[in-house]
Please model this.
Amino acid sequence: MSNGDVKLTISLWVGPEREEALKKANMLEIPELQEAFAGLKRLRVPITYEQAQKLKEVYPSAKIDTSSTQTVELLPRECLDKIFAMVIEKKSVNVIPDLLKSLGK
Amino acid sequence: MSQHVAVDNALSPHGGKLVYRVVEDKEKAKELAKKAKVRIPVRGQIARECISIAYGFFSPLEGFMGAKDVDSVVHNMTLSSGYVWSIPIVFDMSEEEIEKYGIAIGDSVLFTYKDQPLAIFDVEEMFVYDKIAMAKHVYGTDDEKHPGVKRTYDYKAKFLGGKVTLINPPVFNPPFDRFWYPPAESRMQFMKNGWTKVVAHQTRNVPHTGHEWLMKGAWFAANADAVLVSCVVGEKRKGDYIDECIVLGQAALREYGYFREDVHMTSMILWDMRYAGPREAVFHAIVRKNLGCTHHMFGRDHAGVGDYYPTYGAHEIFKGLPDLGIKSVLTKEWYYCPVCAGIVYEGFDGHKKQKQKFSGTVIRSIIQQGVKPTRLIFRPEVFDTVMMCAEKYGFGSPFVNDNYLENRNPVFTIPPMEV
Model:
């Protein structure tokens, strides 16, 4: 399998405020939203390795972990907030293509 | 091997006498400075240790250790007097520096910090010491990846022992000023509050509810009048919580009623962590005893780093020591139990399979994302305080970054002094 086929995720923490927004968007029951710790939930947004590479060009601090967690870590808060806002707006976790487009990628 | 000396008075400072070597009379201070042979600029660690020595945090130490004390601390975990002491407190210089400044035994030299006079150092001896042996005994390893070992190896070739006298006391800057309680003042404060039993909580963290329950559990276990949160403020590393988040986050627990005003106090000590695990636990106990505490709480991985020490090494080390005059409150973990729907103690919860531990990585990730968690994880006011500090003091981050290291609000300033 080439890196281009690797399926990664971006984890977004979902506290009471975000949970309320997801509830209004009728997204509380989606499989990408799971209980993580002490009532706090985690929303997993899918991203491919290629998309992650493009995102890293915009946010060089990002860390792409293809060996253990299969996640994209250390994205700045502004990026994560934007992703969450797009999830709510689109009522879907498949927002990365639109995110990259908005970032000129 | 020297004999350990037990301390029989729980409220006495370590060694029996609270050290106070601060010259408050400005004219006298200037005179001492003028008499000094030479001015030597010192780095942050040495400046912080001069201040801690002079105010008695390190009682009975009156200065930087001489060879006999260092050797006894390294091999026996006592001072040469027999009093328990676990970490060498040393001042180092290179041969070239000693020659350049023309320093000889018997000299009084003026330490300066950030170009201002700070303290008089009376050079009583100069010696060399095997740094590998020092590292092996104090840290249990000679691996230079260990930050305490690295600090030891970075010491210059010679050590100088002698008394320290602070001649230009630091001025603490907001928000740190209201948390600065040197031993004489913390003892006075305890007395005013009518506290005779105070349990210390050592921290470099912003408090999540697991920490809060650790403190509350220790308060119950010690049947204490109060908890003293003693924040360690010293050299920072990238990724640490910024100091402002720590002191203000801890204080928020009291300010927002999670601790009653009359059972909680936040303070700080100036100390560059050595990460010496169990040995550092002993050191912390002594310093908090000097602050007037009667108990000290020790949890898992106290002052440890990596996997150099057993999880509960700090619990074991006190078993081989005499009564230090401060009792250890040994505690295990508090975690979230979804069955109990609350924060519970490992010692009595029967749902271990379902337990959800507080993970440093998860907590940091939550804070990094700035997403307000459930109140079971963070008190909302504590979280808001952390976010406020990130904006106000941390250049947008609650964690230390390059910008913070270079441009931070200094904890204290040494005021100008014309000599």
User: Anything to note?
Assistant: The two ends of chain B are 46 Å apart (CA to CA). The mean pLDDT of chain B is 95.
